[in-house]
Every structure is written in C-alpha cells, then in structure tokens.
Amino acid sequence: MTKEFKRGLIFLAGFLACLAIIVRLSGDKYVWSRPGGESVGDMGKFDDYLLDDLMNQPGQELSAKAKLKVLEELGIVFLEEVRQRLEKQSGDGYADFLASVGMGDFNYETGEWKPLTDQVYALDTEVFDESTMYPLFFQGLLSISGDEVPITDVVQDDSQVNWEEGTGLRRVKLNYNGKPYTIDTQAMLDWLDCSILKSVNDILEQEGAIKRYYAMWNNYQGMTILFLSPEEARVFERGTGCHLSTGL
Fold this sequence. Notes:
three-stranded antiparallel beta sheet, alpha+beta, 248 residues
C-alpha cells in the first residue's frame, strides 16, 4: 500500500468520522423532530433525517429576510452590517446561513481568528493549521459561552502524532474553573476529531452546568454550534426544523 493511498484512506476516514459523530447522540442528549413535534433521545430519527437535512437543509425554501425574522424571534442578534450582508444571501438553509456568520474572520497570514458574533460558532473541520486546531476550537466555543464556561489554559500536545502518516493521538489539556482535564483525540491528518464536542459537553455535565454546546452539520464540511439550555434547544428546533446534537 503506497503512502499516498494510505493518506487518502485517512482523509476519507476523517471526514466520515466527523460526519458520523455529529449525528450520534447518547445518554440524556436530545434530538427533536420537525417543527411542532418532539422526540427526546431518539437516535434513529436523527439518522433518518441526516441525508435529508444535508441535501434539503431546513430553511432553504425561505428568503433571507424570512430566515432573519425567525432567527431574531428565537433570540439571535445580528450586527447591522452583518444583517445587511445576510439579507443578500439566498438559498442557504439555517445551518449554512448561521455558519457564514459563525465562521468569523480568519487571518491566514497570522493564524488568528476573530468572532463576528457571540451567539454562533461555526468551523470547517478540515483545519488550516494542525498544530493549533484545538486551541482555536476552544476559542470558538468560548466566544459563544463567555464567562458561563470557565475553561482556561487550553494546550494541545502533538507528541504522540505520526506526522508522516497523519495518525496517532492528540491530547488536549485544559482547566475548568481551575480543575485540570485531559481529552484524547484521534489524529486524522488535518481533520479535527469531532468527538471532542461530546467530551466538552461531558465536562459541562460533570461540573453541573445547565447549558450545552449544540451542533448542526453544515455544508462547509463542518459544524454550526450554539450554546443553549435544553429548553432553548427545543425552542430552536421547533422554530427552524433543524436537528441539534451534543455529540457522540
């Protein structure tokens, strides 16, 4: 087996892993059906909706102004200049519509990222710089949760990564309100291991937090993430028809 073929397999495995992880739930995680209905913890329904949601993303049939109205009624606030830009953006479903804001501004020369909103974080799970993927991921998460999630001192340890093959282990160390935690993730070339979303939510649950990070899969090969209470997540799903996941 050639190195190029192996790298291709790892690339495909990374994409499929993220795709699978974002549509799995466990324990007391929540999934809801279309607006007006509710199905708590029903994994099967979420799997059934996956392909439909990617190809026929909820909200595609609405105008940009109609989507803005729905989202603003759900409590999403847009800066005026962002709102004006979104009003010209047609054809996107809610997950992609919000992703265009949640992706913020990334400076490819400096590797620095700045948010455009404190309510939505979105990312492409194929990253620009493997060595900083998880500190930047946590920067995005914390940009929408603020002081409610006291995570600090995020450090990514790549000492167990096989850089030639793009495999191995990436270890993430962090403090939650001063308490140390370690999260082990799989190295998959330049793909982020999406299972980290569940790991973070597990920490929130262990620490007694009410809110969780809820993700939608978007068509930018990534996630659109909101920080919500279970009740707020229910209201969002009923209002938009989207399906939210707290992780595998």
